[in-house]
Amino acid sequence: MIRNIKGQEKAVGILQRALEQNKVANSYLFYGPEGVGKFTTALYLGMAMNCHSSLDKRPCGICPSCKKFLSFTHPDLIYIFPFPKETGKNDISIDGEIKSEKTLAEYSEYIKNKTNTPWNEYFFSKNIGIRIASIRMLEHRIKLSPNEGNFKVCIIEQADKMTIQASNAFLKTLEEPPEDTIIILTTSKPNSLLPTIISRCQQLPFYPIPKNKIEEMLLSHEAIDIYEAKLLARISNGNMAKALRLMDGGRIEVREQTLQFINYVLNNNDLKFLELSNQFRTSKNLTQLQEIISQLIIWLSDLIYFKHQQSEITNLDKTEILEILYTRNPNVENYAPELINFMEEMLQRLNGHVNPQLVIIEIYNRFTNTFVRRRSNGKQ
After folding, report:
1. CB 156 within 8 A of CB 190
2. Residue 378 CB coordination number (10 Å)
3. Among 70, 102, 202, 264, which residue carries the largest CB count within 10 Å?
4. Could you count the other beta carbons within 10 Å of the beta carbon of residue 321?
5. What is the domain partition of the chain in residue ranges?
6. What is the DSSP code string of 227-257?
7. Is the confidence at residue 376, as pLDDT, over 60?
8. E strand or H helix at 9, and its extent?
9. Residue 321's pLDDT is what?
């Protein structure tokens, strides 16, 4: 199964050789962008260490041990991830018991989502983090002998969300991990980890997944046409989870909203745009706005291709709109790269908890300045 992970041949190759030579490290750090297979690779590595099949088939995915890993019920799997904490309560005991019923319910829903539709995002009701209680539980669990397998496997997802107190406690665990324990950290923000934690792990970089790999995966999952697969692969920007999420639902709605936005710009329809922007007064539809911005970046890229290499256009069914945009401002070399950079900055700002409505208004003003107001000012 580990060989089936797409677009991460280097990391998978290193782990495959380690398995074959019985030289798997005690601690790993898998780092790279979101949605590129870090957690899946970590889970498959843990499965392989306890798989009942022959070495060349590990992990098989069908033996009792593998099935328990895939359902997150294996007693030797210690899975730690950021989740909320009830005010004034210890969130988890050293035995792994979550005492708050509300937190336990959300914890269970997260695991259910991770099992059934791992590409879908799950939003907790409160701020999340990895606190010292989870690390104390880890310390207790790894001192025990394995229950069913040969190794205890600890996966810490989004390890960058450990508190300072948790990080310091975890550092002691990393200094001398038991020989029958494999610890795997995953993160998209390695710079947020303590340098001493990073230095104690074998580091494996993960990279954005090539577009052709994402297209292949989408076409194998669901009956979508090549055009849609190509569009989603471009929009996802190397993020397989994002591509699957868009395929799973909402891709038509987001594309229609992006087209609405462009039409409002071209027609200078400020009133209709304000109606659209009101959907983003809060962070409730933040992901939707991020997808719209990503699609607008694709449209700007298509404008560049429209002038120089039309075979590379993603929005092939909307070339008439591309032609209007190009006619409004044919100097794509002068504005498109700068505007794409601006859009990427807006995506970064959304990660910084700014008002989403202000972001889309700023984008609208930038687009109208580029494709509408310059004409009204007599600039050609």
Report:
1. no
2. 6
3. 264
4. 16
5. 2-205, 250-376
6. HHHHHHHHHHTT-HHHHHHHHHTTHHHHHHH
7. no
8. helix 9-20
9. 94
Token representation of residue 2: 């580990």
Task: Please state, in angstroms and rounded to a whole number, the distance separating the CA atoms of residues 189 and 78.
Answer: 22
Write down the residue that tokens 């904490």 correspond to: 85
Tokens of 219: 């076409």
Closest by CA position to 36, among listed 1, 6, 10, 80: 6
For residue 89, what pLDDT is reported? Answer: 59
- What is the DSSP track for 161-216? GB-HHHHHHHHHHHHS--TTEEEEEEES-GGGS-HHHHHTSEEEE--PPPHHHHHH
Give pLDDT, residue 249. 64
Q: Tokens 């936005």 — which residue?
A: 261
Write out pLDDT tens, residues 247-271. Answer: 876 556 778 889 999 999 999 999 9
- Give the pLDDT score at 377: 53
- Sequence-distant (6+) residues with CB within 8 A of 253 are none
**What amino acid occupies position 143?**
K
For residue 221, the SS3 value is helix
268: left (phi over 0), alpha (psi -120 to 50) or beta: left
User: Nearest 5 degrees, angle CA 288-CA 293-CA 296?
Assistant: 130
Neighbours of 315 (CB within 10 A): 23
Residue 139 phi/psi, 5° resolution? -60, -40
Residue 28 three-state SS: strand
Instruction: Tokens 């504005």: give the residue.
Output: 335
- Please state the CATH superfamily assignment of the domain spanning residues 2-205 in this structure: P-loop containing nucleotide triphosphate hydrolases (3.40.50.300)
